[in-house]
Amino acid sequence: MLTPRYLLVLLLIAFVPFSTNANSSPEQFTPLVASPLNSNTRPFLGTDGRVHIVYELVLTNASATPATLKKIEVLGASSSSPALASYDGKELLSSLKTTSRVAAESPKIEPDGTRLFLIDVSLDSQVKPPERLLHHIEVLGAPMPGPPTTPVLLSYTVAPLNISTKLPHIGPPLSGKGWVAANGCCGAASIHRSSSQTVNGGIYFAQRFAIDWMLLDASGRLVHGDPADVRNYTCYGADVLAVADGTVVETLNDLDDQKPGTLPDPKTITLANVDGNHVVLTLTEDWMPTA
């Protein structure tokens, strides 16, 4: 049988948290819990000549007091340089989404509420991406656990994210010239960037890097004739290319052409056909540089 003294020791071990604070600062209560949606991510070189690191944070108000997000800064974990990205005001709100893919109406998160925060770190191509990121959060929330209380301004650095510093090399997905990228990465308001799905118990931003490609003809036109006829678009029938060596793992090519400007009946959409007619590749290691 345990004596009271030994029981006290065990209780202390059970309730004192192990230090997980990313910047080794003193322990503090953090009512707004933050974590990356994915454990790591990879930078890429955009057509704007800049290196982008695109990912999401999951934010949950784990207190009985509403938490109002004031600012989020993205920091390099091993550098004392200024923030790599900073979000506040309108920019912060435009990057904040509900779990049902709707833009958040305000930066206030209700008790037990969860939001998704969409991040795009844009770096000069000459700057080597950091191997690890941290996130400095300023929030008006509960200073202590317990019943609802008056919110105070809190500040803490949390949510480490590992970065693969190798930039991927891929080729064009379509043949020819004159292609225009529409609805591409990486603004939070983009129809693809902000589209998440809940599948197999997880949240996935499968369209994080999706692009709608349109082709201009010699006269600079995207379409000639009736725009309701898909065959009148310059891009119709273009050759699709593999962006790198890989293996075809899935195809679908038996869906009818969709009439431009209309969406399929939601009742007909399944996980098997939600991507429309498609080809899915698993790329080999050759698409990544060796150094």
List key phrases describing it.
Immunoglobulin-like, 3 domains, mainly beta, 6% helix, single chain, 34% strand, 2 helices, five-stranded antiparallel sheet
In short:
With 291 residues, the protein is mostly beta strands. The chain is 6% helix and 34% strand.
How is this structure best described in words?
A hairpin with a 2-residue loop joins β13 (197-199) and β14 (202-204). This protein has three domains: 4-163, Sandwich (Immunoglobulin-like), CATH 2.60.40; 171-240, no CATH class; 242-291, no CATH class. Strands 2, 5, 6, 8, 10 and 11 form a six-stranded mixed beta sheet that branches. Strands 1, 3, 4, 7 and 9 form a five-stranded antiparallel beta sheet that branches. The protein has helices at 4-15, 89-94; strands at 32-36, 40-41, 44-45, 50-61, 67-76, 85-88, 96-98, 108-109, 114-124, 132-141, 152-163, 179-182, 197-199, 202-204, 212-215, 246-252, 278-283. By secondary structure, the protein is mostly beta strands. It is 6% helix and 34% strand. The longest helix is centred in the first third of the chain and has 12 residues, at 4-15. The chain contains two helices and 17 strands. It starts with a helix and ends in an 8-residue tail after the last strand. Residues 6-16 have low confidence and may be disordered.
**Overall helicity:** under 10%
Architecture per CATH nomenclature, i.e. the level-2 architecture of the largest domain = Sandwich
Q: Tell me, what's the shape? A: globular
What is the highest CATH level, the class of the largest domain?
Mainly Beta
- Computed over alpha carbons, the radius of gyration is 24 Å
What percentage of the residues does DSSP assign to strands (E)? 25-35%
Q: What is the straight-line distance between the termini? A: 60 Å
What do the pLDDT scores average to? 88
Computed structural class? mainly beta
Ranges with pLDDT <50 over ≥5 residues? 6-16
Sheet having the most strands: 6 strands, mixed
Order of helices and strands: HEEEEEEHEEEEEEEEEEE
Continuous helix count:
2
What is the number of strand segments?
Answer: 17
* Count of structural domains: 3
CATH topology of the largest domain: Immunoglobulin-like
